[in-house]
Amino acid sequence: MADEYPIFRFNAEREAIVEETVRRVIASTRDTLFALNDAAYHEARRLDGSRKPKDQAELEEWRRLARRLGRMSELERRDKLREIVEGYGWDVAGNFDPRVYRFSTSLVPSLVTGLLAPRKLATLVRDPRKLFGFDALAEKFLIDGEVDLARKLAARGTVVFVPTHSSNMDSIVFGHALDRADLPPATYGAGKNLFTNPVLAFFMRNLGAYRVDRRLRHKLYKDVLKAYSCVLIERGYHSLFFPGGTRSRSGGIERHLKLGLAGTGIEAYARTLLSGHERRVYFVPATINYLITLEAETLIRDYLSEAGKARYIIEDDESSRPGRMARFVSKLLGHSGAVHIRFGAALDPYGNGVDEHGVSHDHRGRPVDPASYLRDLDGSISLNPSREMQYTRQLGEELAVAYRRNAVAMATHIVAAAAFGALRRAAGTDDLFAVLRMRDQITLSRDELAREVLGVKDRLLELEKHGEAAVSSEARRMSGGDLVEQAIQAFRGYHTSPVIQPREDGLALSDTNLLFYYQNRLAVHGVGWDPTAHGEPRPRPAAA
Amino acid sequence: MTAIGVLGGGPWGVSLARAARHAGSEVTLCTRRDHPALPGVRVTPSMRVLAEARLLVVAVPSSSVRAVARELGDFLDGGHVLVHGIRGLSSAAGGGSVAGAAPTVTSADDIVTISQVLREETPVRRIGALGGPVQAAELNDGRPSAMVVGSEFPEVVAALKRAFAAEWLKIEGTSDLRGLEWASALVGCLSIGVGFAAHIGATPGLLAALASRGVDEAAGIARAAGADPQTLYGLGGYGDLLASIVLAERPEVVLGRALARGAPLEAAQAEAALRIEAVTLVPRILRFAELRRTEHAIFTALAEILNGSQAEATLRRLFD
Q1: Is the pLDDT of residue A105 over 50?
Q2: Structural domain containing residue B235
Q3: Of B78, B103, B152, the CB nearest to A390
């Protein structure tokens, strides 16, 4: 069965995929002068000031091109365009190694081992089973939701997985979840910066991941990425995208989704229809929920500092520090249900729900043919990029709703929401930064906090009744005091400074930033404090 | 030639059908009530027949739009374009939350735009709205006026411009559908204030002050609802309100004038003859503005005017 997954064909089709990508990008580039100029301008800007010899050579090449462009004939420019686009196309294309895939059942424990001793990886590929047992992992990872539906749809058409994004662990964790749930592996566009970590790079490269260099900001490169992703989906490769783009800085569930490359799923469906070989595309939303987040400290600091708004990629965070990552993984493995992945109901490209037979239904449950969305007023079917852009935006809105409904509240989130609520009351203000400054100033008795925690939990359970939220089954069973205890245990030993500190006089609320981070997960439900509720977030530099 | 269907046989729906016919479109009007003679327009009680046209305009009161759209939805698919000409806002359906609702909408307020209702109740995704100062009477008489068509889909804006193209009708397009819908609703409310103020003897200067302050307030409210506040300063907002100042027969203005005379609300509504969405809308928008903490002095005054309480004093206070 597994060998029939489309991705197993990848290496054989790789060349054809890149060629098709290149052909499309070149055909759709009308103004070669503009395209090359734009690329040269952005690349020169990016490389200017770099001291690396390789960058300097590249810079010189782009500058030379920029100088010559005006004098080049259209034919010469087309040649140059092809050369550049081909270079990008091959740079983006990934690889798929079935051996690496087969041992991905043990991905996470192997990762731990790999982090501790990267050289062991090669032997692991040969025979991973010797080194670890898998059963220990099962209870740490909970997978639920509309898994059956996704499985059935994957057999009918192309599935585009679109989970929430809060950690660099996400792609690995999600890849593992797909395998555990008997879902097909998915190709994935991983940030090139992830490839700098040799361990991550090893997995990424051999699991069908393609490389996305987010430093390249010009249109030509983006066109290559989009075309590549579109060709993959058209050809039936199940794909994985994080439609939020970057990891959630605040810790909150994504509410504004641009979709980015995930939007190519909409174009891909349209193209299959136009080519006469309709192949349905199904978007499967999912939430990835962690009891603790690997990069929480860096992310929330970035969110709170104004500088963070301009910084797009964090090159140096917890995920680039192997020791830290190992500590994180072992911490996760110490808690049952520490990672919870919930699959939401599948959607067609136009935001309609899809049943197990692949039939789309509108919000009132009427069957509707997805092909009809591509019809012009005169009844003809056509590609229309401005229309697809709007369908993409609308799909993003539907996904945001799916995220809200499927986000799983865990002990850390619930306890943080209760604690932050207490902080805010004590501060007596709606000024976020005034609340955040109250580090170590509030001490609550265990009972007091436990009561607050139960209050938060009850509100979530009420929302859950209406399908508007989800509470982890662990958290559901636990008393207020148990939840507090689990949260303290989870925070302790991973985060560098204590988050909630047991003292003689009670529990001190210490790391207000992290409490904010974890409570933000519930802000979308109106249960945690939502500082963005009244207009735009107004992060400003925290006072010293 | 554009084939267009109009749903709703009230004065506004009939006028839209006439205008589209005048513009050379092939028009079907779906109505179950009596209607004046409409040469060249196919009139049918059947939604199925109506849905043969792919471009449809809904012109029913906001209070019935959800039920009507749900019924109409049985005959539609993703190839239809659905537009409404309703100067109001609606309420969220009980229970479920709405995709595409203003991203920060919490359970505390339940205002949704008509286009959101159309999206919930039908399979259609290409949705738009009509707005701007144009009035039913102007469309009937072919008097020069201006209309705004709004949709996030450029093809919808283009189709509407084609369907209503006439020398005497200036049509502007906007991609800020949500902004246009809020603008139409908010200006409807402000127009009551204009009629009221004019009757109690507000000078042109004071009316101008009321209008500009009102639009500012409306822009703040629209922004909180997820619209582009700039839309409120365009033809669908400020332009529309400007027309109210000189359009003495506009229903909202008539209503405001009647209230200023001391007429009870029911009598004032009867005088305005047409159904006025703003009457039920004002208190809801006021509550929305309070929850979102946007400026709402004028909407507070409008609510008091509608309640008949201390209205004159309220309005005077605004000019202090």
Answers
A1: no
A2: 178-318
A3: B152
